[in-house]
Design a protein that fits this description.
Number of strands: 4
CATH class: Alpha Beta
Number of helices: 3
Low-confidence stretches: none
Helix content: 25-40%
Distance between the termini: 13 Å
Largest sheet: 4 strands, antiparallel
Strand content: 35-45%
CATH architecture: 2-Layer Sandwich
Shape: globular
Length: about 90
Amino acid sequence: MYGTVMISRSSTPIEVMQALLNEWRTTIGDAAGFVDQRALVTDDGRVVMCVRFRDRAAYEALADHPDQDTWWREKLAPLLEGEVTWIDGDWHDL
């Protein structure tokens, strides 16, 4: 599996993000090789989101898709504060 970890800050309740991500999953993600996602939300507002795809090709195809860019810019990015850090790579079960 391949995917990304996003690290940012947000004062938006996680339930709002969950609703947006559920919308994303049904309109974009499921057709794009999406496997699963998890979010860690800290007491001080940091959000660490992990998203996995079946393989790197599926992840890169989605990353290059115009609908994904529009969704990111219009829906999720406005809920985040400051710079977002992305870490991409292969997932391994331990």
